[in-house]
Write a structure and sequence with these properties.
Elements (H helix, E strand, L loop, with lengths): L1 H8 L3 H7 L21 H5 L9 E3 L2 H16 L12 H17 L3 H6 L4 H15 L6 E2 L3 E3 L1
Length: 147
């Protein structure tokens, strides 16, 4: 239901979710969470002014390391590794969430639109990790690190 309402109102659902936690199960956004949100307002709210970012100074040794890593990223051929992981319990969690969402839906249409994907769960985990471990959410800016 929230996804449909966001589409109808021209809202960026991801920006709304980033700006405030949802009141639904597991922090998911509900239709009530979208009340009063204006199109475009949610987009700016994702990064409020004075957001908690900080610029960290770097030592000369770290600067040299950063330059070399950046250079190697551009010049050294890349290779990729893949592996299989068992996500059976994650699929079970997704199915449980979707079952609860379907049961709590107010209408048939809302029940059809209430769906959590595996990608949704992974993105939530990544976002929570970035909040708990700011080093994972840092970027090299040349002469400082933005965190």
């Amino acid at each position: 239901m929230a996804r449909r309402l966001a589409t109808e109102q021209g809202l960026d659902l991801a920006a709304v979710a980033a700006s405030k936690p949802g009141t639904g199960m597991g922090g998911m956004l509900c239709a009530a969470d979208l009340a009063g949100v204006k199109p475009g307002a949610a987009i700016g709210a994702a990064f409020p002014s004075g957001a908690a970012s900080r610029d960290l100074p770097i030592s000369p040794a770290r600067a040299a390391l950063g330059r070399r890593l950046t250079e190697s990223q551009r010049t050294v051929p890349h290779y990729y590794l893949t592996t299989d992981i068992e996500v059976d319990e994650l699929f079970e969690l997704r199915d449980q969430i979707n079952t609860r969402l379907t049961k709590s839906a107010a209408s048939k249409e809302e029940a059809e639109n209430a769906k959590v994907t595996l990608n949704d769960i992974i993105m939530k985990a990544v976002a929570a990790t970035c909040l708990k471990v700011p080093d994972c959410n840092s970027s090299w800016q040349g002469d400082f690190i933005r965190q």
